[in-house]
Amino acid sequence: MPASAATTTTTSSAAPSPSLLPCLHVHAHGRASAAAACCLLVLVTFLVVAACWWDPRTREASSWFLSPPRSAPSSFSSLTSAGGVGGGGEHLLATASSYYSAAAGFRNSTGKEVHQEVRGHGGDDRGFLSFVNSSFGYDEAPPPSAPAPASPVTGGSDEVIIQSTPPQVERRRDDVKLERLELGLARARSAIMEAIRKKDKVSPLPDKDYVPMGPVYRNAHVFHRSYLEMERQLKVYVYEEGEPPVFHDGPCRSIYSTEGRFIHSMETETEAEEGRRLRTRDPARAHVFFLPFSVVKMVQTIYEPGSRDMAPLKRTVADYVRVLSSKYPYWNRSLGADHFMLSCHDWGPYVSSANAQLFGNSIRVLCNANTSEGFDPARDVSLPQVNLRSDAVERQVGGPSASRRPVLAFFAGGNHGPVRPALLAHWGPGGRRGGDPDVRVSEYLPRGGGAPSYADMMRRSRFCLCPGGYEVASPRLAEALYLGCVPVVVDDGEYALPFADVLDWDAFALRLRVADIPRLKEILAAVSPRQYIRMQRRVRMVRRHFMLHGGPPRRYDAFHMILHSVWLRRLNVRIAAAE
Ligand SMILES: *[C@@H]1O[C@H](CO)[C@@H](O)[C@H](O)[C@H]1NC(C)=O
Ligand SMILES: *[C@@H]1O[C@H](CO)[C@@H](O)[C@H](O)[C@H]1NC(C)=O
Ligand SMILES: *[C@@H]1O[C@H](CO)[C@@H](O)[C@H](O)[C@H]1NC(C)=O
Ligand SMILES: *[C@@H]1O[C@H](CO)[C@@H](O)[C@H](O)[C@H]1NC(C)=O
C-alpha cells in the first residue's frame, strides 16, 4: 500500500472500507505490518500555556483546567524554549481560561459564536447551567479524605442552585440523585485543587500500575489525583437507542480506528476491574451521557458517494437527539452540556452542527480539532488519530536510539490540504531544496528492491514531520510516538493537540509554523544531541497514553485518557436540577 493512500484523511470521498473485524473479537495476537504510512507529529503548547498561566490578566478568570486561550498571540515554542522544558516552570493541569461563567456562548452551525444566556426552565436569572469558576467548590468542599458531609451542597450563598421542589416525586428523586452526583464532583474538584496547591510538597499517590511522573506532564501529581478521582467516581451512561451499524458500532481499524475502538470499548465495558467500572446502566447515576453514533459508519451506509450531500447525516443525528431529549429528562436538564459524542471523521464537526445544543454545549470528542472551525479546547476534546492496521498497536511500537537514526527529518504522504503543498514544494523531489539527504520529504516511497518501508523510515529518522491532511489531525503523530521519532507538528496553531490539558507537548514534540518550512532543516539541526535524547526519552514515556490495546482497555491508555478528558470537562460544568 503506498504511503499516501494509507495516510490520506478522507474528506472528498466516502470512507475507505477497511477490513473490519468487530473490535470485540480482537485480541492481541495480531501482526502489525509496520509497512504503510504514517508519520507523526505533535506539537507543543508550552509557551502559550506558560504565558497564559503567568499572565495576570488571564489568571483572574482562571478555570482550573487547561484551556488554551483563543487570543494567544502565538502557540509555538521556539527551540530555545523547548530546550528549557523540564526546568522549573509551573506545569499545572489548571491554567488560565476565559471560560464561561453563568452565560454560555453558543456556536451556531456556521461556527459563529452567539452569546446567549442559558436559562433554566424556571427562568431563574442565575442560569440553568452554572459553569464552575475558579472559586467554586474548592474552598468550601471538604478534602477527599474527609467524611462526606450529610448536608446539601453548600458554598457561597450563590452556590446552592437546586432550585425548588418539583411536583412529582419521581422527578424529585432524580433531583436528589443529581444533587448527590454534583456533590461528588465538588469533592473531586476540591481534591484536585488541593493537589494543585500542594504540588511540590506531596509524596506520590500509591498506584499498582503506574505513577505519572516527569516533565511530559504539565503536573504529574495533579493528573494522577484527577485520574484516580475519575476511576473512583465517573459513571458514563450509553444511550441504548439506535441500531448498528450507524449506532453502537464503528471502525476498528483504519485511520478512523479510535472512533470504533472507543465505541466498542464503551459498549463492552462490563468487566468490573476492582470496582473501576466506568459505565452505568442507570442514567440517574451518570455524570455524562454518551451518544453512541459513528460518523464513519454513517458515511459508509447513509451517504451517497460523490453526492456531496451531507444532509442525511445531519438529519440522522438531529433525529437521534430529538428522540433522546423527548424520551429522557437528561438532555433538557443540561441542554446537552453533560452529553458527549465522538468522531474521528473529518466531517465530525459538521455533523455535530445538526443540533445547536450538541454543537454549542455538548462535549465533542473530535480528531478534527481545528480551533478555527469552532473547536473549543475548554469544552471539546481532541481525539488522537491512530491508523490501526492490525488488532492492536503493540506490534507497531518501538525504535532505535538517536545514534542509529541517520535521517534528520522525514515525511511521506499525499499532497493535499493546506500545509503539505508548501512542504513538498520546498523539500519534495524537484522542490527548491529537494533531494537533501537529511530531509526526506516525498509523496511516495520507493518500492521494492529492499527500499525501506514507511515505518522503517520513521525508525531511521530523528524527527517525523506531522502536517495535517485535509484537516488538522494526522495519524503520524501517534505513529511517531510509537516508533520513537520526535514528532514535529506543522500548522499555524489551530490544531488543539490531544490530551494537552494533561501533557506538556513541548517536552516531547516540536511545532513549526507553515512559514518556517523553508528553515526547517536549520531549526531541527539546531536541537542539540542532548536535548534530542531527552525529548526522545519522553516520547517513550508518553506512549502509553496513546496505546490502543487488543482486548479490553488498560489503565492510562488512550481509551482512559479520552474519558479523563471528558471527565475534566464535565468537572467544569455544574448542572442544576430543574424546577
Ligand atoms: C466566581 O464565583 C464567585 C463566587 O460565587 C463570584 O464572586 C465570581 O464573580 C465568579 N467569577 C466568575 C469569573 O464568574
Ligand atoms: C450564526 O451566527 C452568526 C453571527 O451571529 C449569524 O450571522 C449567522 O446568520 C448565524 N447562522 C445561523 C445558521 O444561524
Ligand atoms: C425537552 O425539550 C423539547 C423541546 O423543548 C421537548 O420537545 C421535549 O418534550 C422535552 N423533553 C422532555 C422529556 O420533557
Ligand atoms: C483550520 O480551519 C481553518 C478555517 O477553516 C482553515 O483555513 C485551516 O486551513 C484549517 N487548518 C488546517 C491545518 O487544516
From TrEMBL:
Entry keyword set: Glycosyltransferase, Golgi apparatus, Membrane, Signal-anchor, Transferase, Transmembrane, Transmembrane helix
Main localization category: Golgi
Regions of compositional bias (Pro residues) in chain numbering: 141-150
Subcellular localization: Golgi apparatus membrane
Segments forming domain Exostosin GT47: 231-526
Superkingdom assignment: Eukaryota
Membrane-crossing residue ranges in chain numbering: 30-54
Single GO MF annotation: glycosyltransferase activity
Topology within the bilayer: Single-pass type II membrane protein
InterPro entries from the UniProt entry: Exostosin, Exostosin_GT47
Region (Disordered): 139-160
Record's GO cellular component terms: Golgi membrane
Family membership: Belongs to the glycosyltransferase 47 family.
The protein's name in its UniProt record: Putative glycosyltransferase
Organism: Zea mays
Lineage: Eukaryota, Viridiplantae, Streptophyta, Embryophyta, Tracheophyta
